[in-house]
Amino acid sequence: MHTKAPEIFSAIMKKAGVTGTYEPFVISPGKLSEAIKEIRRLNIAGANVTTPYKETMIPYLDELSEGATIIGSINTIVRKGNKLKGYNTNAIGFMDALKEAGLDASGKPALVFGTGGAARAVIFILNWVHANPILVTGRSQGKVRAIVKQIGGEAVMLDTLSDQHLPVSLVINATSVSSPDEAPELVEIVNRLNLPHCEMVIDLNYGRPRNFWKEMAQSKSIPFMDGLSSVANQARSTFALWTGIEVDPEIVITAIQDSRSTQ
After folding, report:
1. pTM across the whole model
2. pLDDT by residue (tens digit) across 42-83?
3. CB contact set of 193 (below 8 Å; sequence gap of 6+)
């Protein structure tokens, strides 16, 4: 398992004056119940949950936040006494990133690429801020239809997007793919998007040496935002849920950037 979360949260704890440690654990699929029991037994304040357990961990928790219930996916667990509650701070991070960018999505059409936990969070927030319509696309039409049925939006087929006039104000990449060599067929589709009214292209990934979403936006003179702000706000929210302490956004961004410089 490769994650920079221990370095990031350790730096945040140090800056906030919190004594603690953040440790990564690799959990096999058949051991989720045992892992949850250990959180209680060891009095761990909380935990992050990553793919592929953002949905499958839910039945083992005592309760969910309203957002996590609607999204059907979690990334953060908080222990209160013997009770464990699941949250989705991916959604909070994305909403705060929109605010920081000065984007008012109310009444504006959006196009979301992806069908995983990140896409669920994005669609939830776009609904929350009244974006309209919310178009959702991905490689699996079955998954696209399922996410639209559960959370909202309108399903569109990926192979129908090229060259047609798309009257959307926001394009959001909520897949894990940003480098051209990861999915050449998606690069071709994205480069052929016709986006005459687009106000911003947002990629929830960050730190890629080459990013075809950014290159597409630049070629069309559309403002671009990567996922650094979203990830930083997500981490801030998670830390606040665990500790009750609100840290400055710059502390989190510095911690993230420093962790990448050590790669």
Report:
1. 0.90
2. 999 999 998 888 899 999 999 999 999 999 999 999 999 999
3. 161, 162, 166, 171, 216
List all residues 6 or more positions away from 95 whose beta carbon is below 8 Å from its beta carbon. Answer: 125, 128, 129
> What DSSP character marks residue 194?
B
From 4, 15, 54, 83, the catalytic residue: 54
* Fold match between domain 5-91+229-261 and domain 101-227: yes
Q: What are phi and psi of 241, to 5 degrees?
A: -65, -40
Is residue 170 pLDDT above 80, yes or no? yes
Fold of the domain built from segment(s) 5-91+229-261: Rossmann fold (3.40.50)
- CATH number of the 101-227 domain: 3.40.50.720
Nearest to 89 by CA among 203, 236, 227, 202: 236
Contact 86, 100 (CB under 8 A): no
Distances (CA, A) of 166 to 110, 143, 231: 10, 22, 28
89-100 and 117-128 helices cross at what angle (nearest 10)? 50
Give Cβ neighbours of residue 206 (< 8 Å, ≥ 6 apart).
Answer: 226, 227, 228, 231
Question: Dihedral through CA 67, CA 64, CA 17, CA 94, nearest 10?
Answer: -20
Q: How far apart are CA 17 and CA 13, in angstroms?
A: 6
Is residue 80 flagged as an active site residue? no
Mean pLDDT of 109-136: 96
Collapse the DSSP code of 181 into the 3-class scheme (helix H, G, I; strand E, B; otherwise coil) and give the result. coil
* DSSP-assigned beta bridge partners for residue 87: 76
